[in-house]
Design a protein that fits this description.
- By secondary structure, the chain is an all-alpha fold.
- The chain has a domain of 44 residues.
- It is 45% helix and 0% strand.
Length: 67
């Protein structure tokens, strides 16, 4: 990997004690954070108990029976 380049979007970069962060790295971190948020929402939507009803009235047990 090459030397980090200063930010071109006005974000952190350069200055005393603040490392330069390439825009591509910043974009990858933003995508990873969004993916974590989506995964968190997905985990929250799945009930722990297979008999616990979802908001639509179905249960995980019923859904798995279809598969």
């Amino acid at each position: 990997m090459g030397e980090p380049v200063p930010s071109t979007d006005g974000g952190p970069g350069g200055g005393e004690g603040v490392p330069d962060v390439p825009d591509a790295v910043r974009a990858r971190l933003a995508v990873a954070q969004a993916a974590c948020e989506v995964a968190e929402l997905a985990r929250a939507a799945v009930p722990v108990d297979p008999r616990t009803p979802h908001p639509d009235g179905t249960t995980l047990a019923e859904a798995s029976a279809v598969l």
